[in-house]
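Today's session is about reading a structure prediction critically. Students often jump straight to the picture, but the first step is always the sequence itself: look for stretches that repeat, for charged clusters, for runs of hydrophobic residues. Only then move on to the predicted structure, which in these notes is written as discrete structure tokens rather than atom positions. Here is the chain we will use throughout the hour.
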Amino acid sequence: MKKNYLLLLSLMTLVLFSCKEDEAPPTPVDPVVLETALYDFKHGALPAPNLPEDNALTQAKVQLGRMLFYEPELSKDGSLACADCHRQENAFSDTDRFSIGVQGLPGKRQAMSVVNMAWNENEFFWDGRSHLLRDQSLLPIQDELEMDETLENVITKLKARELYTNQFIRAFGDDAVTEERMSLALEAFMFTIVSYSSKYDKFLAGEVELTESEERGRELYFTEYNPFFPEFSGADCQHCHGGANFENDQYMNNGLDTDAEITDDGRMTVTGDEADRAKFKVTSLRNVAITPPYMHDGRFQTLEEVVDHYNEGVRSSSTVDPAIENTRETGLFLTAEDKVDLVNFLKTLTDEEMLVKEEFSSPF
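Below is the predicted structure for this chain, in token form.
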């Protein structure tokens, strides 16, 4: 009996020992470390932008910025992210006339698209009050009409989540969450939002043909206004919306109001110069067909209304641009067919691929 007991005990010990030997050792967890791999920045046929040398576009930093861009906890009540007023399907703009903030209050100006910011070289916002994109990135968080939160509270919330502290390590080398690092990451991500695959881009590359209407619209777009020979006069759009990005990096008064009607001083609120009254940033026309409403105050709902304004609705004021004022007496001589063709050309600037690219979408 005793021998049987000892034999059974020995067998049990052997079985237990064998089981322990068969158990796989725990998989070691790789430490979270700084990641320096550069982001693959694609910009098609657009010229290489002048990106800031002190904010390298690393994959980890861009990913952190993407996370922050889609993070609703940057707002006071956790209900509003940057992406809610800059929606990918609308070329990162808002189709509401004025975006609604966390307090249910409307903003004062129409939300601008944040596409192709890497080619913006004359400050940010409609009035240019932020010198760099990193400066712009944090202001909506603190604006009471928008996200209505303090940066101190945002930092506290991010520090409490390992998801973010780990990503700050990957992007910057340690887990310190700071205002500067948040702004650099947001800037990095927004720089990567690039539009370069529109039908017009493919036309320039010889990949597609424009329709007859689109081609007539293209000719009108790039042909100058000619008051002496109306039959040869064009819409003269390229003076303000020219180059590869369809803008000119200037602030202009485009004749929306007379001096008595102006309610928003625009650039003058930043410079203090009366000559800048009612001047606003000339924005890119890339993806313009899907970014209504139009102008700084969203007064026009359609491209047709915009064309009508330049053709027959320009109003005179003390700071209106001379080139626009020059057309006021006669208009642009556009016929009904001309207007249709011009709008059809503008629609060729829509980049359908950008609207669904995964690298620009929510990472959550």
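Discussion point for the tutorial: The CA atoms of residues 264 and 278 lie 6 Å apart.
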